[in-house]
Design brief:
The complex is a heterodimer. By secondary structure, chain A is of the alpha/beta class. Chain A contains ten helices and ten strands. By secondary structure, chain B is mostly helical. Classes of the chains: A alpha/beta, B mainly alpha.
């Protein structure tokens, strides 16, 4: 069976100043995988996602989403930024943040209506945050804030989801809730790309993995390439991880 | 003239009405836009913009020789915008932090402006007097056309705000995300910043270069204390700003030798102070009261739980115990015991206490609640 390619990255190079953060990345992400991007701090994991989404301008290289440029395929892509990237003391409610997920399909000037509100409420329900819909966002715990961010991406009803460290600073309950949602997305045929830090959970959570450290080290099915060899190449130290079979 | 007289005159007296309307509209528009500056953590931007406007005023005078406020404010607008985009340029193109860029542009433009002002004052031209009023503002110079200009800008600002409300909100909260949704964040950004510059420039004549940023920040800081909704915050901020304008004008008109700009700013500061202390959600007073109440409740519950443990060991839960044994317990005070009696949880007899059925039941529930929430 030939799999479709959801995201194709060619020769992508990104630099903040002189030093490249990403160097000549070629990467194909097949449709329907739940993929982890792993690598040490400063390896360019978040940068890779931001470059794909056009938040950062690459120095060279191209990205295509289902064969076309990202600008044309925006509606197919949803993004969950790092929780720490926004000010949670902003005067707004959980429901309101999730509604922002509908702004893209609304376009300029048009206001969200009943239909958008309904979609936002459904997304809140999915992440178990419906009882908190009118809660001021600063009054939410870290895990709850992460769920709100996830709900905001779910509302976009995209085909490809990019998530920047969704498990950072959340408790075990939220982690399980989030991974269950990600697995459901995969079951529905969506492609999910996650910047991930906890190597221990990679085999359990993901079926696809990309090792990144400025350059791409390896990419492929977890069962084939998640091994000590690639971990050592990526992290630079002799890494031993006991892979659960 | 006292304040009462002011309010009876404000509707009939032309000058007073013009000035009051002007300061009210100015307060409303700066308050409204100030909310955005505060939420973007660009509080100092207003200060930099207003100071950056000064050389524009001086140059406009030097080139045209005109002293009407429209010409001078146009100069201020150009130089304010120039300063703003320089600041943005410095932040994006160098490693300097935004506070450094703001400070740099503020002092550079202001210094240049002062230089030009002193140069103009040395000119043998009788027409030069009065430019320095832009330093601290002079509300008395407002005329009807100035007020119309302010009203016009406010109306346009309001329309833009209503049209692009959702875009402004998402830019303020999560710029990168807005970008991935396909919004041109640069355009929205420039739109907001331009309106902030415009509002500041409009206020220079009334409040002056030095104090203008307070008009932007004070109402917004006060409004933030009262609400957790962006729309309510913007609305309240406009209301606070307008009231500061009106009260400030009233106070300064009713006393001799009180210039309007500083009084408006002080009134706005009073709004801030009152909001910081008395707002129910975020105010210091209620926060402190909540802390005290929570601590009391916890002490009460802890004491009750302690009693429950002692009573549990007896077959008869209402078996009396010495009050003395409670002394070993840290959370216990005479006050908590009295509260427990008031609530019918405990009966005191001489030097002994015993739990009532109600107290026992409540304590056992409490205990279950505590242990289950720990799991």
């Amino acid at each position: 069976m030939k799999q479709h390619i959801a995201v194709q990255i060619d020769d992508l190079t990104v630099a903040y100043d002189y030093k490249p953060v990403l160097w000549d990345i070629d990467l194909e992400i097949p449709e329907g995988v739940l993929m982890a991007i792993v690598g040490p701090n400063g390896a360019g994991k978040s940068t890779l996602i931001k470059a794909v989404l056009g938040i950062l301008k690459p120095i060279a290289g191209s990205v295509s989403i289902y064969g076309k440029s990202y600008d044309k395929q925006r509606s197919l892509v949803a993004y969950v930024p790092q929780k720490g990237s926004v000010d949670w003391d902003f005067p707004t409610t959980a429901l309101d943040v999730v509604m922002m997920g509908t702004y893209g399909s609304l376009g300029w000037i048009k206001r969200p209506r009943q239909k958008q509100k309904k979609a936002a409420l459904e997304a809140l329900e999915k992440v178990g945050m419906l009882p908190f819909k009118n809660r001021q966002i600063s009054q939410l715990s870290g895990g709850q804030q992460q769920r709100v961010f996830l709900a905001r991406a779910l509302v976009q009803d995209a085909s490809i989801y990019f998530m920047d460290e969704p498990f950072q600073g959340v408790d075990a309950t939220t982690e399980i809730a989030i991974i269950n949602i990600l697995k459901e997305l995969r079951k529905a045929g969506k492609t999910v790309v996650v910047v991930h830090h906890d190597l221990q959970t990679v085999p359990e959570y993901f079926d696809w993995v990309t090792f990144l450290n400025v350059k791409k080290i390896a990419t492929g099915p977890v069962k084939d390439i998640f091994n000590d060899d690639n971990l050592t190449k990526t992290y630079g130290i002799n890494y031993k991880v006991s892979i659960q079979e | 003239m006292d304040i009462q007289e002011y309010f009876s005159l404000v509707f009939s007296d032309y000058t007073l009405r013009t000035i009051t309307l002007g300061t009210a509209i100015l307060g409303a528009v700066t308050g409204m836009l100030g909310s955005f500056a505060v939420l973007r953590k660009q509080s100092l931007l207003g200060d930099a913009i207003s100071h950056a406007a000064l050389p524009g005023i001086a140059l406009a005078f030097l080139f045209t020789g005109a002293k009407d406020s429209n010409t001078l404010l146009l100069g201020a607008l150009v130089s304010g915008l120039l300063g703003t985009f320089w600041i943005r340029g410095i932040i994006t193109k160098t490693h300097l932090k935004s506070d450094t860029a703001l400070g740099l542009i503020l002092s550079l433009f202001f210094g240049f402006g002062m230089l030009l002002l002193t140069f103009i004052q040395k000119q043998p031209n009788a027409n030069q007097a009065g430019l320095d009023k832009y330093l601290f503002g002079q509300a008395a110079t407002l005329v009807e056309s100035d007020v119309w200009l302010m009203a016009g800008v406010t109306a346009i600002c309001l329309i833009v705000l209503l049209l692009f409300w959702k875009e402004f909100k998402i830019l303020l909260f999560d710029k990168d995300y807005a970008l991935t949704l396909g919004f041109n964040t640069k355009t929205i950004d420039i739109l907001i910043t331009s309106f902030i510059v415009l509002a500041i420039v409009l206020g220079l004549q009334t409040v002056g270069v030095v104090l203008m940023s307070a008009m932007l920040l004070a109402p917004a800081a006060a409004a933030r204390q009262w609400t957790n909704s962006l729309s309510k915050m913007v609305f309240l901020s406009a209301v606070f700003g307008a009231f500061s304008g009106v009260f400030g004008t009233a106070v300064s008109a009713s006393q001799d030798n009180l210039s309007t700009g500083p009084v408006i700013v002080i009134i706005a500061a009073i709004f801030v102070g009152v909001s910081f202390i008395f707002s129910p959600i975020r105010g210091l007073l209620f926060k402190q009261l909540r802390v005290i109440k929570n601590r009391r409740d916890l002490q009460l519950h802890k004491t009750l739980a302690f009693m429950y443990h002692i009573a549990e060991t007896h077959e008869d839960i209402s078996h009396p115990h010495e009050i003395k044994i409670l002394n070993n317990f840290q959370g216990y005070t005479k006050g908590t015991l009295k509260k427990l009696v008031e609530k019918d949880y405990v009966i005191l007899k001489g030097s002994t206490w015993s739990l009532t059925q109600k107290g026992f039941k409540s304590a056992s529930n409490l205990y279950n609640q505590l242990t289950s929430s720990n799991e």
